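quick one: zinc ion bound model?
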Amino acid sequence: MRNKISFSRILLYFQEVKERNNTFEGKRVSLFSLQATVLALVVSLAASRAPGQAGAGETVIQKATEQFESTPLKTTVLDKGLFMFSGDGGNVAAIVDNASTLLIDSGINSRVTELNHAIFKATGRPVTRLVNTHWHFDHTGGNVYFGSEGVTLIAQENVKKRLSSVQDVPFTGIRDGHYPPQALPAVTYSSSLALHQGSQQLTLVNYGPSHTDGDTVIYISPANVVVVGDLFSNPVYPIIDLASGGSIDGIIQSLNEILAHTDKQTQIVPGHGPLATRADLENYRDMLVQVRQRIKGFVTAGKTIEEVVAAAPTKDFDPTWGGGYVTPDVFTRMVFSSLAKTGSASL
Ligand SMILES: [Zn+2]
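yep, here:
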């Protein structure tokens, strides 16, 4: 099993982190970073496969982990003092002011020191605040590291709840959560929160349960950039985290809100994949609406989940959207369960 970490791999991991820390900006290995390393490893071991395969072949978590561990880390400049980092899990955004960097999401834990190097190289300023778009491991994996360094963690209130205990994501094999206290958000909000970072105003908004029950969309103005987390993965089928309150209707509703608050010039940072435009987001919303409509028809007609999967309701969309770690089969099961309101109970 891929997620079983051998003792020799643990030793290699420690050695690698120690070497990176020794060379990073001439900084010595502090008690804090050593503690962060130990805790990161604990979280790494906790993020493992849950029972319940996602159909034939590899699970979503297996495919996703392979991708997140092997994709080179890329830095993209969005605007002056505004960056996107991609490859090590969910996309990460950074906004600088004179003295600090505000981060949005923290990638997977096994690549956090690499991410921190890239951030410092691009921004030249230490991270002091970190906003999580939601609780999933590929967006919060660096929380232990940054939290242990005294960075203030900020998220919608349900993120704290989800990260406080073990969570399973249906149809994916993802089991994670139960983070240590320093990796939990210290600042939480319910429906919206305003922050400033240098010349940029950040508006954090939760539109209700969508991908999870703790999604945050971050509007950055005047840069005209929106960070949407996993409400949009470009261009692949999304995970609908039914056990965390997610639903297909909630995702569509949130996307409609984002479309209403953006324009042609808006740069959209998706949860995964390349930088997107409003037109990309609209196209994605339209696909979701059509898939929802088709599967709703099957649900109303009393079809079973297996009958719906066999009918391949996403077939014509698969060449464009079916190439990610959420296969057409898995996506169909998620949409069906969302509409049939069976949630995780059907698993
Ligand atoms: Zn997610």
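The first strand starts at residue 48 and ends at 49.
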